[in-house]
Amino acid sequence: MNRRRTTAVAPLAAAALLTVSAPVAAAGGGQPGGGTDSVQRQLDRLVGEHGVPGVLARTESRTWTAGTAETGSGRPMVGADGSVRVAGNTKSFTAVAVMRLVTERQLGLTDRAGRYVPQLADSRVTVRQLLNQTSGLPEHVAHMDWADQDQTAEDLLALALAQEPAFEPGAEWGYSHTNYLVLGMIIERVTGEDFRTYVEDTILRPLHMDATYWPERGELGLRGPHAHNYGVHPADPEAGPTDLTDLPGHLFGASGGLVSTPEDLNTFWRALFDGRLLPRWAVWLMTHDTSAIGGDGMHPAGTRYGYGVASFPLSCGGVYWGHGGDLPGDSVAGGHVPGPDGGTVTVYTTSMAMPGEARDRLHAAADAALCTTPR
């Protein structure tokens, strides 16, 4: 078991771990509404007590909402077809793409990353260590220029490699977006095509996830129906809380760049654990080669991290498998309970759910949806 490095767990750069003290919006009802059930209560408290502008939870059959889609507008919170940047959940898609190449014997888990990425030619880091966040590669997000949309993956990796390693490969666990930046580069070297195209061809199109997409270079806004996002922009923190609906999504790449909807994201989780994307043995590896990471303020006690997926304990027993995602302007949580009767849920907020009570309520909403509502 790898030791956990808690200082590396933050989902984005320190500048991104800022939220907005938004005006409290009137709690929406969604379905069933009125704050009378456990899911709705958690959403209402995120809005009423923590100043989150808008929040949504979606299972296979029900949608709950609270707050508004845009502060000061009174516009109802968008539904399950609303676009949202899924941030770190992108890693799960990238991990599935990598594991597909492993199952096809085009790539090995013990292969050194430097075999495919020249900048890592002298590194001992392996594909497995990139997947399970035990490489020790330092974070690049804290050093990138959010205004420079011409930065390449090689440019961003150079920013990381200019820093001291967080730890020796395999010695500890530490969340770093650089791991999945490198995995995207490996996919491209192995397949000869952009990792975005590979994910589209092998995951998005077969599952008919038509509302999920990679932002184009220079694209700042969100396509389709969407709520506004709020927080402090990492490129201009002194400006204070602002509307963060426009962000350079292309820069977030294989570690955080996907835009999806709650409906599409639920489709992905069900397909992964139903065996429609990978052989069962590959999913078994993803969920059994894990590190304990819970109790750090970001992840509930008992959380474990595997290959781009994490297990979260449920109050009703067992776990659900999924991921979390955070950007300046939103937080996304959710996943799937494996098995014939397993449920699926996606919860997201339109400002970052900070560590502490707000983060706990985000997880509690997912737990309530899986434990107290019909699946």
UniProtKB/TrEMBL annotation:
Keywords (A to Z) from UniProt: Signal
Signal peptide boundaries: 1-26
Designated name of the protein: Peptidase
Region named Disordered: 50-83
InterPro entries: AmpC-like (IPR050491), Beta-lactam-related (IPR001466), Beta-lactam/transpept-like (IPR012338)
Compositional bias segments (type: Polar residues): 62-71
Limits of the Beta-lactamase-related domain: 40-369
